[in-house]
Amino acid sequence: MRNENDILREVLSCHLEYVDAVFVLDGTTDGAELSRSICKSFSRVRYFTEDELPSGYPRPVRDGCRRFLAERAREEYGFAGWFALLHGDEIFVDSPADIIAACPAGTECMEVRSLLYFLHESQQPFTLDQTRSFREQIKWHSGPGWPEVRLFKNIEGTNYEPARHRSLAPEGISSMYRTNFKIMHFPYREPGGQILRARDRSGVTGFSPDSYRHVLDGKYYLDADFFHYKNVYDSITDKPPVPRAGMSLPERISADMKDFNYDWRFLYDWSRRRTVKIK
């Protein structure tokens, strides 16, 4: 994670409802002491900083650094259970255990869909109230969501290569199961800090500038006209996402169809490739 202090305590509290422990690698540059203090206040958070990375790991922290955290987790837990992977501004809609239980036996790696949360044009001017849950204040999101690998089984031979940025699936996994379970992604929060965050993410950490171009251009409050990627960010709503793990299979199929606006061709192609091979 990196510079998430405004939402960090709530995010960690959400994660700890579902898992045995949270392993944090902190690359915070703005408020590093506060970030450390928040993490250390949770007994089941294992906290590491960028300074503890061995040579060969990229700095600032990025995807390949997951290897460092996986190794720390295995020192404590061995090869058992599952890893749930989240950035510091992401939260699961369904319990990870419920997602795993709803998928076919033998699955080793899962893809979920990331709902993009943002400040809607109807909310301007907006100031984040730190005395209230940020999820009550940042409600607008677009779906059905960007595909992201966020769960994989903790088995020997799987890990990340430090130099491979944006390598979402770990090395050693031969196939990945695609799902429409959701996570909530909150990259856009208070307007005053968005321009600094956009510059940091696009110019320092190497994430795509396209993801933050609207902020760099001064557009902090978005509407339906901003989202042009069909089947990824095709619709916006302020209604909370409904957990799917408790749904029956027909109910999940119906929800999938609604998510993708009944685009039968896309749904047919997606359903044929539920399990995809990884090179």
How would the global form be characterised?
globular
Q: Secondary-structure element sequence? A: HEHEHEEHEHEEHHEHHE
Radius of gyration: 19 Å
Spans where pLDDT lies below 50 across 5 or more residues: none
Biggest sheet, in brief? 7 strands, mixed
Count of DSSP-assigned helices: 9
Portion in helices:
25-40%
- Count of structural domains: 1
Q: Report how far apart the termini are.
A: 28 Å
| Strand composition percent | 15-25%
Number of strands: 9
What kind of assembly state do the chains in view correspond to? single chain
Overall SS class: alpha+beta
Q: How much is the average pLDDT?
A: 88
Word description of this protein:
This protein has 279 residues and is of the alpha+beta class. The protein has one domain (8-277). It contains 9 helices and 9 strands. The chain has helices at residues 8-15, 32-40, 66-77, 96-102, 134-137, 191-203, 213-216, 249-259, 264-272, and strands at 22-26, 45-49, 82-84, 90-92, 109-117, 141-153, 175-185, 233-237, 275-277. The strands form 2 sheets. Strands 3, 4, 5, 6, 7, 8 and 9 form a 7-stranded mixed sheet that branches. The protein is globular, with a radius of gyration of 19 Å. The model has no long low-confidence stretch (mean pLDDT 88).
